[in-house]
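Q: Fold this one first, please.
A: Sequence and structure below.
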Amino acid sequence: MKKFRILMVLILVSGAINAQIRIDSSFAFSTNPAKKYSIYVPSAYNPSVPNEVILAFHPLDLLRWDASSWCDTLLAFAESNDLLLVCPDGGANGDVTDQIDYDFTEALLDSLKKWYHVDTSRMYAFGFSKGGKAVYEFGLSHADLFGGIMSLGVETPTVTGIIKNAGRRPYYLLNGSNDSPSTKLTPLKTSLEANCAYVETNILSGIGHTIDFPNRNQLLKDAYNWIDSVNLSPKTGSITLVDPISFTSVDIKGFHQYPHRFTWERSSLADNCGVMKYEVMFDVHNGDFSNPLVVVSSDSGGIDTVLTASNHVIDSTLAGLGVALNASITLDWTVRSTLLGKYSDTAKAFTIALTRKALGFKLLSPSTNTKVLLENGSNRLFDWQDMLHYISVKYQLLLDDTSGDFSNPVLDIFSPNNGANSNYNISHENLYYRLFFRDHLEIGDSMILKWTARAKDTVYSELAASERIVWLKRGQVGFSLISPPTNAIMQCKKGVDYTFVWDSVPLQGITYEWLFDTLGANLKDTAAIVVKSSGSGTRARISITYEFLDNLMDVYHVDYLDTLHVQWTSRAMDTAGVEYSLETYTGQIIRAHPVGIDSHESAYTFRIFPNPAKDEMHLAWPGELEPVQLKMIDATGKCSLTKRIGKNKTEITLDVSELTPGVYILYLETDKDVLKSNVLIH
């Protein structure tokens, strides 16, 4: 069957090029493995242009009618009118009104459009008797497919719920005078006209329920010519614009919520048949609306004779057209209506002038060239005119370089209360960390910026009417240490740990380091111990264990109950710079745990020099020791350096330049023993 269908397509295409042709064929559909149809291609068929189509449903009479015999009956009519004729078959029971037949007909028409060059605006349908019933039931259910319908001696169709689709289309009803026209033709005609259809009738004198009547092809031709001419004839009416009248000037204020209304009279085509849709079009002055600047449906989805447009929408549209604030544009506007997607009319255009009016709200303070010192505890109030009479306005404070245009400002921040306040008492932290820290400015340095405010809502956005210069000078700000407090006395005692805490910096991407050394050392530049804070440097704290302090005591040779005087601070870093804490705290560490408890005693010793070390460290040991490997463990327990030692060596030099400054435990492993010593890397 698949090969046959492919062959049929090839036959159809080749036949279409060399029309005329008659086709009786079938294809599998639903439960029917060979659903039949017949097609006639007229000799005038031209594949390079769209061609008219007539769908024809045959009557119910198994002894005479099927798709093939029905096609034979109408072949001369189709040929004389240059119509592609397509006839679906009613199947084993001969009834074309079964649902499977309607579904098959829809599929057949879809295939026809693929096989032939079809003029979809000039597709028509015809049916006789039971086929007449089918043509109305199928035709009104698929009204958009057909430009009109012809029928003869119609068996009463079931059109409840679909008769409303009849409007604005032509219907030609033929009926024999001896075939009960009062019960077949008249009620159908009345229903069609009540639903705004264009109806023409022809009572055939002396004719009963038959298609075999004299001059048949001419009468069918007359019917076809009528529906075709009605279908093709334009249906136009008129619309009269009402307001705003021509040459009106309209100010558009983007934050105002009240609307502007464009109104017009109802189209002369409008009636109770079908839904008339309206569109408002705007074009350049004296434009022809063939390519309008803006097209928008009227209210209620295009049904109302009014367009309500807020200042928001109009201002946004004008901005999109390139109209600057406080500038004007002259446009023509008109209304276009459509009915059933095909009948239309257009009003004579009016001309209007639209001006985008800026709010022009003012900056209040600080005044231009104000010098602002930013240091601990200092705030700076930025203030501007409040636009309280506008709804849902939010404000932003913007600072930018003096050469910038605020499109990519240095600082862009909503005012307090989610943007509702018309001022911002901005703290030193916000400006300090957002500006100075990232620009590497030292204490005492200044930066010159300009500032303004922006008022905005979900649609509209406007900068203040001016901008001002402000000088920002970096004072002493930084961040503070918290605990342990300065001069704290700490104990190096087993089971006792300490947590060092400081202020966090209100910026993303910051990491912290803890700096520690003995009292009197240059803590910021050459701290003996520099360790990342907790959370891989993300938290403003670090926990220091007893083991760490005990190693520290060993490095500095602090005996039991002796005191080590120390200092500590912290620093914050990101990719742009480094900021140290404002303070350096001092403290005392008392070695409260007896030296030597839990330590391992070895018969051998080894020497480390220099200790503390910076770039290189030398180790030496007696020949009989024979170490095989050394390791260096940092204060967190991480192995930072491992090195294998060859045989017969009594000394080694280590490169420690890449190690992080801090306290380490060095383990020297032999086959029989492990020796350890504390070392300090600067």
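Q: Good. Now the second chain.
A: Here it is, same layout.
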Amino acid sequence: MFSTATDGGSVTLGADITVSGLNLSSGIAFSVDLAGHRLILNADGGDGSQAGSGGNGSADGTPGPDGASGVTGVAGGTGLTNNGILTITGGTLEVSSLGGIGGDGGSGGNGSLTGPSGSGSGGTGGRGGQGGAGGIGILNHGTLALTNSSLHLKVTGADGGAGGNGGNGGTDTSASGGDGGSGGTGGATGTAITNHGTVVFAADASLSVSNMGGGPGGDGGTGGHGDVAGGDGGAGGDGGAGSSSGAPWAGTTTQVHFDANTGDSSEAIAYSDTIGHAVGALQRTITSWPTRSGHTLAGWFDAASGGAAINTSDTTAAAGQRLYAQWAFASYTVTFHSQGGTPVGPVPVDSGSPVSKPDDPVRVGYAFTGWYTTADGATAWDFTNSISGDLELYAGWVTDLPTITTTSLPDGHVGTKYTTTMTANGGHPGYTWTISDGSLPTGLSLDQTTGIISGTPTAVEMRQFTITLTDANDTMVSTKLSLRVTSGSTRPGSTDTDGAILPDTGFNDTGTFFSGLLLLLAGATLIGASRYRRRRS
């Protein structure tokens, strides 16, 4: 999975795995989520082989040959070579680069058993092989960042091989046993991290290096036995020397400390040559640290407040510098969706503050019911709530058309003052009345604000027309009506010339005098006719 790492790629472990080293090429940015598991990079060196023993003395009185030296153990390799940008998070990275154990020395050969000149002495045991040196745990030329994870390095030199045992002396005369071989020297320690780039530990990442130090020397070989007639036994071999301890770091070891400046002890450490490189490495690899609720990171500064901002182009030597995060209140955006109404623009709001309620939008034919967190209007937004992130609100609407309740108009009469009022309900009051088609009878007019039709008709006629009502939300409704104007004779219950309504008596105050006069004349005529008939008779 790592041999085909591509730029911008990533991998998440599903179990502990062991691989024989990892090499990330230059120009490749790659991330590994350990997901609580262990990634083991193994570059241990192989053990040296044991030397062969010396053979027995071949002729009478010939000493036994010395044993051969053991083979040196193989040095450890490099566990991780990083030339790119590698981010590791959420688990344990173990890198092992142990040296191989030195091979044991061969045993000395036994001396020959008998002969005219006596038995041969035993051969000296072979020297133990040198232990393999520890390798390099991590060789970094790029950017390596660890967050919420632990790095454990093992780069110890290996044990030296044991010296070979001395050979036994012959048995006929006083032949001596061979000396034991010396133990092999322990392998030199390796280097945990050789850093020529930037290494970052953040968000509780930790580093541990185990078994630092050279390998111990091998044990000396046992001296051979002397002959039974009193020959001396051989001396035991010397133990091998242990190798000195090494340093866990090589190359760039200067630290830059990043203080989250949030009132706790949270910090990151970068090993880098310049402050700018350290800042750049942190920004490129670790986006989850630092964080502060309700705030955004304003940048890194050389003081907890005020001070100078640090950027990636800063070439100041690291020299143990401490940098501080400085914070700004997060600003979020509240977006208003009018859903067919007049537009309402987005509003920026500081974290922890409420958003002010905007002016209500307007939608023709609808009444605005409020702002909601979903388009279906399921949950109303409380404008006293604090804002903690970007928010989208949706306008709610219900149908709201005004209705003209006037369905007919009374007749008018020529020469008689006329007045009547149009009525309506619903919608948004603040009505405007207009004649949108046709016209009123001659002499009448419509007040656009009050809806009153008034005036004095001047001609007998029937007019049909359309009256349109527009409410305060510009919602329009219309109705067709007609108005008839009759002659000047006023019918019972109609409007008189002074605007008064007369009772239904069959008479009105116009022409009352003439009606009475006609009655008198008619009565006089009847009386005169009656007298004339009596005289003739």
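Q: Anything worth noting on the second one?
A: Residues 256-326 form a domain with the Immunoglobulin-like fold (CATH 2.60.40).
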